[in-house]
């Protein structure tokens, strides 16, 4: 019934006369911006009868792109299904084709020709057509009806070949679901290189100067060395193959990194004899032949056989920050593993450190790409003279280290927008078009192991950076649009159809959801009212909704709300609630009436448990509000601030340093109560606001 009402409203609005001026259309706003645009008048309109039509000679090659576009349009238009056909486009159709003869667009460029009758996306290669569909989707996202594209011709192509992002999953585990969502998110912004740093370790000094207790992890399933695989989070081989297959279908190259011979404590914990007694156990002993035997086996496990785990064209072998005194051994090690991965048909990427590790031992240059991150380790001018390809990954511009107090917590986006693009490698700027600079990549490094940072916190930092850096790596500088203007328009562009990793909800006057027993849930951001999806084990009474413990819940129409929220409710707990009794739950977090054995209200997410210094009184009504942003989480009782969980620091044994503990919360809304451990008591007057600290 709901879908029928939405469709009727869509059709009524769609066919109203268009009062817009028939002036020449300006270029539509997309991220990254179009390289070339020739506007005409009028607009293409997506109709309920529209189809995605494939040119017959291109149908097989473009079928995957068409299916993804079909799914995305269905998400964007509240369930309208656009069939995929082969043949000639009719009125309102989207036409996809390959034109191999147009080589001026390169491997990723595309053309869009939009008329009032049809919209045509063409490119020499499949990936170019796919990028054209991302442009189409972004323009439709900005249109109030998700139906219009301005008439005109776009010719779009990237300024840089590699447009990347590096994620350290070694020191902080990210779920496979997160990685899969990130493939789609990056693709939405035409970012084509996802570098996954699969192993690393914490800092020795943060773990009492004890290598045995220092955190280390390797995130892939290993059959050669089963105990190598991290126990607190890992990916099966098949999961990783499927991630790469998904990425390929979305135009993204997954670059797996096994980081050796430094940052390698996970391997020396597996085989202590290969750890360096001279430089520290996070360094491999490069004079020990067993080191080569073990690391050869690790790489071969993922590269060899008829069904290798690493399926893409590039493999990163690490090679960074090793002891300078062992430069010759280090150079020999780099050369060995470049040649090993090349022996399996891959191209090698390295961090390099070849300026730091000067020596006479030759290191292969041809077809090898360096992530140029710190000029003291690999001076980019020297690397260019040697002939290396480079991906600009400058730490002084592009390193996010969450809540660490050094590098960037959030990147300086205005400066990046105005001054940076990949030819800038820290303080050195190459000439535009220098062939050694293949592109750029920004990075998240999770140096502070155990500091409370979550996937949601990382995404909060990455999202705005992805928008700005996509712009700078595809289009480059744009003198026609200030950063303020770009940021204002970028705020209306999300993560892709159906995606809401930021948990953003919109509502009338800031109220996005409210619930009273026996009354509808107001879900204003959808423009409709919807009842709670499901209830179990609850009783509706005049004074509120009563929960009986155990399986006792109300399932809500939204899963969570992201930073910048206030959730208020009145609660009357019964006597005798058990530890960990649940008030609210979602897949990413849980709010508890009694946090573990403390008896106090608190929350848990991603293995971290927090408690406010407050016990909710039994058998009486209390009005509570929990408010959160990217800095922390606050509890109010009866309109007064009880406690702010923000800015907590813990000392590091034997050091003057300290570590900030992040105490943020994406508020869970999927269930009031729980499917297994609900609290006992009553709730009423639930209101969810998309503004922080909205206290009555």
TrEMBL record:
Position of the signal peptide = none
A GO molecular-function descriptor: beta-N-acetylhexosaminidase activity
The record places domain Beta-hexosaminidase bacterial type N-terminal at 28-157
InterPro entries in alphabetical order: Beta_hexosaminidase_sua/sub, ConA-like_dom_sf, GH, GH20_Enzymes, Glyco_hydro_20_cat, Hex-like_dom2, HEX_bac_N
**What positions does UniProt annotate as the active site of this protein?**
321
Q: Which UniProt keywords apply?
A: Glycosidase, Hydrolase
Q: Which GO terms describe its biological process?
A: carbohydrate metabolic process
Q: Report domain Glycoside hydrolase family 20 catalytic positions.
A: 160-476
The record's comment on protein family reads: Belongs to the glycosyl hydrolase 20 family.
Q: What is this protein called?
A: Uncharacterized protein
Q: Which organism is it from?
A: Chitinophaga lutea
The opening ranks of the lineage are: Bacteria, Pseudomonadati, Bacteroidota, Chitinophagia, Chitinophagales
């Amino acid at each position: 019934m709901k879908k029928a009402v939405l469709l009727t409203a869509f059709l009524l609005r769609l066919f109203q006369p268009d009062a817009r001026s028939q002036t020449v259309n300006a270029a539509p706003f997309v991220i990254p911006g179009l390289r070339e645009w020739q506007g005409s008048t009028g607009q293409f309109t997506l109709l309920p009868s529209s189809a995605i039509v494939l040119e017959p000679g291109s149908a097989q090659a473009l079928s995957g792109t068409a299916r993804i576009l079909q799914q995305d349009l269905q998400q964007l238009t509240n369930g309208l299904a656009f069939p995929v056909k082969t043949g000639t486009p009719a009125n309102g159709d989207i036409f996809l084709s390959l034109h191999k003869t147009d080589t001026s667009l390169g491997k990723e460029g595309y053309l869009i020709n939009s008329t009032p009758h049809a919209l045509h996306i063409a490119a020499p290669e499949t990936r170019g057509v796919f990028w054209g569909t991302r442009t189409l989707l972004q323009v439709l996202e900005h249109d109030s009806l998700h139906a219009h594209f301005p008439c005109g011709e776009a010719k779009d192509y990237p300024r840089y070949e590699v447009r990347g992002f590096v994620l350290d999953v070694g020191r902080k585990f990210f779920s496979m679901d997160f990685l899969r969502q990130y493939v789609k998110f990056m693709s939405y912004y035409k970012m084509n290189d996802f570098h996954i740093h699969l192993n690393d370790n914490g800092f020795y000094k943060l773990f009492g100067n004890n290598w045995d207790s220092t955190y280390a992890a390797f995130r892939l399933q290993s059959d050669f060395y089963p105990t190598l695989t991290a126990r607190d989070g890992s990916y099966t081989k098949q999961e990783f193959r499927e991630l790469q297959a998904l990425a390929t279908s979305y135009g993204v190259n997954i670059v797996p990194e096994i980081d050796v011979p430094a940052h390698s404590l996970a391997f020396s914990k597996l085989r202590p004899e290969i750890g360096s007694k001279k430089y520290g156990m996070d360094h491999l002993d490069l004079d020990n032949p067993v080191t080569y035997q073990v690391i050869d086996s690790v790489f071969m496990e993922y590269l060899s056989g008829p069904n290798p785990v690493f399926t893409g064209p590039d493999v990163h072998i690490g090679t960074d920050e090793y002891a300078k005194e062992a430069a010759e051994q280090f150079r020999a090690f780099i050369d060995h593993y470049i040649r090993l991965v090349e022996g399996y048909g891959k191209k090698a990427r390295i961090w390099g450190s070849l300026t730091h590790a000067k020596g006479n031992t030759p290191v292969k240059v041809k077809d090898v790409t360096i992530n140029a991150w710190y000029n003291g380790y690999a001076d980019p001018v020297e690397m260019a003279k040697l002939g290396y390809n480079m991906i600009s990954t400058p730490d002084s511009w592009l390193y996010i280290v969450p809540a660490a107090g050094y590098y960037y917590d959030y990147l300086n986006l205005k400066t990046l927008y105005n001054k940076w693009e990949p030819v800038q490698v820290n303080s050195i700027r190459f000439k535009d078009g220098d062939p050694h600079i293949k592109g750029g990549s920004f990075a998240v490094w999770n140096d502070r192991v155990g500091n409370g940072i979550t996937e949601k916190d990382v995404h909060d930092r990455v999202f705005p950076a992805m928008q700005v850096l996509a712009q700078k790596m595809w289009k480059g500088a744009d003198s026609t649009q200030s950063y303020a203007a770009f940021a204002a328009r970028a705020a209306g562009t999300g993560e892709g159809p159906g995606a809401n990793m930021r948990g953003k909800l919109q509502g009338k006057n800031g109220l996005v959801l409210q619930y009273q027993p026996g009354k509808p849930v107001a879900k204003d951001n959808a423009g409709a009212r919807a009842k709670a999806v499901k209830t179990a084990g609850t009783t509706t009474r005049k004074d509120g909704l009563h929960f009986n413990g155990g399986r006792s819940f109300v399932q809500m129409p939204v899963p969570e709300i992201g930073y910048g929220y206030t959730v208020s409710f009145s609660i009357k707990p019964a006597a005798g609630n058990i530890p960990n009794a649940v008030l609210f739950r979602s897949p990413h977090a849980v709010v508890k009436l009694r946090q573990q054995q403390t008896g106090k209200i608190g929350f848990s997410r991603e293995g971290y448990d927090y408690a406010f210094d407050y016990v909710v009184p039994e058998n009486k009504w209390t009005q509570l509000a929990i408010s959160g942003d990217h800095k922390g989480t606050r509890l109010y009782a009866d309109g007064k601030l009880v406690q702010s969980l923000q800015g907590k620091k813990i000392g590091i044994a034997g050091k003057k340093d300290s570590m900030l503990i992040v105490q943020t919360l994406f508020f869970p809304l999927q269930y009031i109560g729980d499917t297994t451990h609900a609290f006992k008591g009553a709730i009423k007057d639930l209101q969810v606001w998309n503004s922080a600290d909205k206290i009555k």
